[in-house]
Amino acid sequence: MHLDALIPYDHDLRAIPETARAAEEMGFSALWSAETRHDPFLPGPLVFEHTTRLSFGTAIAVAFARSPGTLAYTAWDLARGSGGRFILGLGTQIKPHIERRFGMPWPKSPAGKLEEQIAAIRALWTAWQTGERLNHRGEYYKLTLMSPFFDPGPIDHPEIPIYIAGVNTGLAALAGRAADGFHVHPLHTARYIREVLRPAIAEGAEAAGRSPADCAVSVTAFAASTPEEIAFVRGQIAFYASTPSYRAVLALHGWEAVGEALSGLARKKAWEAMPALIDDTILAAFTVIAPGPDLPGAIVDRYAGLADRLALYVPFVPGERDWFWHGLVRNF
């Protein structure tokens, strides 16, 4: 199991070199950048410039806000510049964000479009690496033009891993069929990974003639040791669990009514009332809770055998809680 870290969601690009150097010295395997308030790709060149071993990936970049061509070119350049340390992580987001935040159309089949987008990206990479004619024709994309002026040519590390993210079985199965990794949403339980997501990944892999081991399971986990951290996590769980498309996680445990109540409060923008619906049983299912010195071991114990890569929901900031990060690295 690789131990990774998240770049702060509200990062300043000027801080990325220090963050990257500290993460590599700490012993992390990769840094992940999310698409929330900032472009997820821009930290990449700074990470690679200031490290020699550390991988960097997007977790996630919003796939439907971009064309296969823009994603393929960006990933190709980052793979070339890093010597093969870039991981392209893609996610669908949800319909309101695609339509109202990015101004793009929501597809009739999100999983179908994402699968074709992956195929289209790989078609571009193959054309650039081998010189083969570009000829991808699908329901959503037709790519048939690649003149020499626009062809970046081959690179030393053309096998760029593609991870996708999701909550439900459809995208997990797609990861098994067509991706190199699956980002598990922070709103998960160990039981949900074990009983729902991993079997779906295995089913998808077997349908495509692959091994489930070909798709790494990358988990971002909630963890807390202080009352302040517990309160923060309770609020995040309430926020995520209010999303109807994430309801399957709650349903596995018989907590559908909680999800419906949270959705109702969210519609009313009653954000402050939502955390109270996350009782201690729900909190403990979604969160690793232990006293500070015991927390690293408890995190490893929960995810051993479930995750191939693990990061915490709390971003890594050099100089903050270094004692904890050192303890976590030692447990790996």
Overall geometry comes to globular
Extended strand count: 13
Poorly predicted residue ranges: none
> What is the structural class?
alpha/beta
Range of strand content: 5-15%
Q: Approximately how much helix is present in the residues?
A: 40-55%
- SSE topology string: EEHEHEEHEHHEEEHEHEHHHHEHEH
Largest sheet: 11 strands, parallel
Distance between the termini: 7 Å
CATH fold call: TIM Barrel
Quickly list its features.
332 residues; alpha/beta; TIM Barrel; 11-stranded parallel beta sheet; two-stranded antiparallel sheet; 13 strands; 44% helix
Please specify the SSE layout and strand pairing:
Elements: E1 2-3, E2 5-6, H1 16-26, E3 30-33, H2 43-49, E4 55-58, E5 61-62, H3 68-82, E6 86-91, H4 95-100, H5 110-130, E7 136-137, E8 142-143, E9 162-166, H6 169-178, E10 181-184, H7 190-207, E11 216-224, H8 227-241, H9 247-252, H10 256-267, H11 280-286, E12 287-289, H12 295-303, E13 309-312, H13 322-331
Parallel strand pairs: 1-13, 2-3, 3-4, 4-6, 5-6, 6-9, 9-10, 10-11, 11-12, 11-13
Antiparallel strand pairs: 7-8
Helix pairs in contact: 1-2, 3-5, 5-6, 6-7, 12-13
